Amino acid sequence: MNYKKLLVVVFCIFITPAFLLAEEGMWIPSLVKKINIDRMQELGFKLSAEDIYSVNKSSLKDGIVHFGGGCTAEVISGEGLILTNHHCGYSNIQRHSSVENDYLTDGVWAENKKAELPCKGLTATFIVRIEDVTEKVNSSLTANMTEPERKAAIDKVSASITAEATKDSHYKGQVKAYYYGNEFYLIVTETYRDVRLVGAPPSSIGKFGGDTDNWVWPRHTGDFSLFRIYANADNEPADYSKDNVPYKSKFSFPISIKGMQEGDFTMVYGFPGRTSEYLTSHGVDQIYSVTNPHAIAIRDERLKVMDAAMLESAKIRIQYASKQSRVSNAWKKWQGQNTGLARYDAINLKQQREADFTKWVNEDATRKKDYGSLLETFGDLYEKLEPHRLHRLYVNEGMYGIEAIRYANGFRKLHEMSVENPVNAEEVTKEIEKRKKAVAGYFKNYHQPIDKKIFRALIELSMEKMPQDLQPAIFEKINKKYSGNLDKYTEHVFNTSVFVDESRMNDFLDNYKTKKVYKLEQDPIYQLMASVLNHYHETSSTAYSETNGEIVKLYRTYMKALQEMSGEKKLYPDANSTLRVAFGKVEGYKARNAVQYEAFTTLEGIAEKYDPEHRDFKAPKRLIELYKAKDYGPYGVNGTLPVAFVSSNHTSGGNSGSPVINANGELIGLNFDRNWIGTMSDIVYDPSVCRNISVDIRYVLFIVDKFAGATHLIDEMKIVKD
Ligand code: ASP
């Protein structure tokens, strides 16, 4: 090696990791002070750990909302205005939409607070405090407890910890397990129950790019919507009332329109849902070669039918908008995940890490005794799990992918009550009344021809792909009775079942008698649902939970060992829907050979993709006009308008709607997605390619202000210009 080459290598080893590599990890906010703040400040962060999380004074955490329990939102005004993704607000926008008032297509902007739309059931939860209760929990556990005993002891001690923490308050508490149950944290929360829809752009902005662009960079989606939290006169949570007033939060985010450069510090603060970063190679392999391919194939069938039908009429499109998005989102993500896992040779990478682990274990006799057989046992257990996991998948994704089957599942309680001895007539009447009330709501978003086609396709697929020795007997009976003619069987089911037709269902409930419970039992949808489910319970359910339980228990030991092996350097816990901090910086990436992606997109990209004939690439006329006139107001820069950017924050589902914050703690973007191969980051995070995608806050403000003319909302916000 010559001198110059040597210099390059030395440079790469010593300089690159500290300054150029992206950061991995989603960290517990209350531990940032201990673990991360130095590194964050090294990367440019100008605030303190106390500014991120504090129990004593207002901090950024007080502006972060767990939105509807699934997404994240942030407070952006002193009057309870919150910002989240369009796809997070989607089901509520859909619920308020009709063919006459098509908010999905046209967008919706409340003119004033009175016009804001109540969203039944939608909640906004704040984190009051996070406390490490590991010692308390561990003190109630002993080494020789069985798993059920351990669980009972944890439940008991958790109940007393939360009761103590929330007494004399309207707060709720929960003790959550981290690191596979090696650590425990108490989370105290405050949940607001009156949340109203304030504004959303048309889907041609909020969902621009549709399924084609989902999980893809470069991106041009204005994926945002606005809601407002309402409280009672004491600023406390209350059920919806017209007397409620806008909530005054302890903290609301200042919004920076100064913009950012590649390399600038970014932080994402939100509620990532679930990751599995410490899976062994066996676990990754099972996802890669078993669950993902089957789940994708099942959803392929559902989407084919839904997508075609949604083009038929506006009514069907609105009915299925939310359902289709839910199905297609994970479907596409799993494909990206598998592409990433293959390209970055994730199984091999895991195996290499396991080889390092084994080496470390073999260095010490105690380790050898405690951890020596871990990896081999993982291999055996995963092998044992596989058929049951597949069976489970075909029940959950396959059979429950049929709407009528899911609907019928809700009638199992009525069935149980009807066969009880003696029958509690009063309870049965109550249940019937409850069911009756829900009928119209259910069928409002049900289109029988869609479900019928999906039924036909998924029955065939399940018969073919469910492990043969784990198939329910009813499959064989159907095949015999209809001589393998599934079209005939489907006709019969849809001509007779009460679960696929509103008037049949109403008739059924109006005339329901427990003595005639056989009518329910003989309904072909109910019959199929009950047989498949009962059979699953008899064959796979216990085997699945037992084996999976053993695997989870093993991960607890493995995780403990990994932490020991890691020494001083603390590992981050997998996501578990609790509040986390992820930091990194604005940066593009090299996608593949000869392909380098830039970090920013602009409105020019929308003009390039614009295609009025393509479902995913329509754009509103007004947006095109503003583009032609280059009329961007204060949000434009150098003659263009920023739309989205990528950064290296480790995020996951549930981080949708999370604020992206600059070094000063100001809001610069709204996280909404990840890049295609980067979706493998739920399992393996590769800093060179895993990126989160955010909509630039200047694009959000431009749409609210210049496009929609909802300037009264801008007036509520604190905008930082320089
Ligand atoms: N777009 C994503 C979601 O819908 C967010 C993510 O997973 O990065 O879950």
Notes on the protein architecture:
This protein folds into three domains: 21-123 and 193-276 and 573-720, Thrombin, subunit H, CATH 2.40.10.120; 125-192; 281-554, no CATH class. Helix content is 48%, strand content 15%. The two termini are 50 Å apart. The model is unreliable at 1-21 (pLDDT under 50). The strands form four sheets. Strands 1, 2, 3, 4, 5, 6, 7, 8, 9, 10 and 11 form an eleven-stranded antiparallel beta sheet that branches. A seven-stranded antiparallel beta sheet has the order 14-13-19-20-21-18-17. A two-stranded parallel sheet has the order 12-22. The chain is built from 29 helices and 22 strands. Strand 7 and strand 8 (183-192) form a beta hairpin. It is globular and about 75 Å long. With 722 residues, it is of the alpha+beta class. The structure holds aspartic acid. Residues 87, 329, 651-653, 655-656, 672-674 line the site of aspartic acid.
Quick overview of this protein structure:
The chain has 722 residues and is an alpha+beta fold.
Brief descriptors of the model:
disordered N terminus, binds aspartic acid, 3 domains, 29 helices, Thrombin, subunit H, alpha+beta, 722 residues, 22 strands
